Amino acid sequence: MRRQEAEGYLETKRLADQLRRSYDGEAWHGPAVRELLDGVTADRAAAKPIAGAHSIWELVLHVEAWERESLLVVGGKTFEILAGESDWPPVRETSAEEWRATLERLESTTRNLVAAIRAMDDAKLNESAGGREFNFHFLLHGVVQHNLYHAGQIALLKKMA
């Protein structure tokens, strides 16, 4: 038995792997978020081919916002339901440099959240997530599901742009 498995880290390793796969790839469903964003330019990311729908850029900012909130909650912060610009941060500048910075923030936040989940003991998964009525297990599975939901939207927008 590996050391982490013996110390009670088996489920957190699985969750961390699922989050990593939702972002990096080797996901069962198909292309992961990073794979879908590969080759997307700033202009394409900012495009809104469907009236009233979010752009790829807005989706990326939204995914990163929820991953960041979850990372902070894993670190001990009280959970907040994001709303307004916290939930859907606006795209303020559409330069290539800002798009690269947006992608770098998403990658950094994802990697930090994966590392934080890997470091958690499985017992913490049953604890209240940031003082809420749900536990970390529910929260972290939700983050993976959230990423995959928006990955599907990104895939469709990428085909349309």
Question: Please, could you describe this protein's structure?
Answer:
- This protein has helices at 3-6, 10-24, 33-37, 42-46, 56-74, 84-87, 96-119, 136-160.
- The protein is an all-alpha fold and 161 residues long.
- Helix 5 runs antiparallel to helix 8 (136-160).
- The longest helix has 25 residues, at 136-160.
- It is globular.
- The relative contact order is 0.21.
- The model has no long low-confidence stretch (mean pLDDT 94).
Structure summarized in a few sentences:
This protein has 161 residues and is mainly alpha-helical. The protein has 8 helices and no strands. The model has no long low-confidence stretch (mean pLDDT 94).
* Structural shape: globular
Largest β sheet strand count, sense and barrel closure: none
Output the number of helix runs. Answer: 8
Beta content comes to: under 5%
Radius of gyration: 16 Å
Q: Whole-number average pLDDT?
A: 94
Q: H/E element string?
A: HHHHHHHH
Spans where pLDDT lies below 50 across 5 or more residues = none
How many beta-strand runs? 0
Distance between the ends:
49 Å
Label the structural class: mainly alpha
The helicity comes to 55-70%
